[in-house]
Amino acid sequence: MAAILATQPMNSLRDLLIAQLNEIYASEVHSEAVIAKIQSAAASPKLSEALRSHLAETKVHIARLDRVFGEIGSKPKKSESHGSKGILDDCATIASKSKVEPHVRDAAIIATMQRLEHDEIASYGCARTWSNLLGHQTAAAELMKTLTEERRFDEALSRLAETLNQGALEPMTAGSR
User: Fold this and answer.
1) Do 91 and 107 contact (CB within 8 A), yes or no?
2) I want to staple 39 with a disulfide (CB 3.0 to 4.6 A). Which of 3, 51, 78, 101 is the partner?
3) CA-CA distances (angstroms) from residue 78 to 3, 18, 27, 140?
4) Which residues contact 135 (CB under 8 A, 6 or more apart)?
């Protein structure tokens, strides 16, 4: 997200908060379309369900961000960073690869989704901290709810990877005998 932040006016912590929120907002909106696409590409029913559930959460995250913008007296502008856009594009590309072994594709989907989640966790964490510092406690509380959900989804992906990655290993192991 740093590339877009560098192009925004940075005269105050409020400016930085608004720039960060705009990038988060753009990423969440873009995530809606990409998550729907990769959900249908997931071979594992458990991964597909986790993605479906996170897609529903993403819609809630966008609604929360709208409330946060209202509290701080600003309106969202989609100023997507190259980082989150690149990660989301990677997710979409992986989902579109039909000739990849399904377990391997699931492992790749999990890896790219976790990169996205880690970016969102860092972004929401900073925005929450800055909201607190600027006296926007309601906004900070809303951002904390989303931060908690993003962490929870990242942990769920890690648990899924522990079992699904084994399936990605087995075709290679069987082929090397």
Assistant:
1) no
2) 51
3) 14, 11, 8, 21
4) none
Q: Which two tokens stand for residue 124?
A: 């929401």
d(CA 8, CA 154): 29
Rounded CA-CA distance 113/173 in Å is: 26
Each residue's pLDDT tens digit, 56-87? 999 999 999 999 999 999 999 877 667 777 87
Predicted TM-score of the model (pTM): 0.85
The CATH code of the domain that includes 94 is 1.20.1260.10
| Domain housing 155 | 11-170
Asked, for residue 106, whether it belongs to a domain, the answer is yes
pLDDT tens-place string over residues 95-110:
777 777 888 889 989 9
Do the domain assignments include residue 4? no
DSSP assignment of 86-131 equals HHHHHHHHHHH-TTS-HHHHHHHHHHHHHHHHHHHHHHHHHHHHHH
Q: Which tokens hold the place of 70?
A: 């209202």
Evaluate whether residue 94 is within a structural domain. yes
Q: Is-contact 55 39, C-beta < 8 A? A: yes
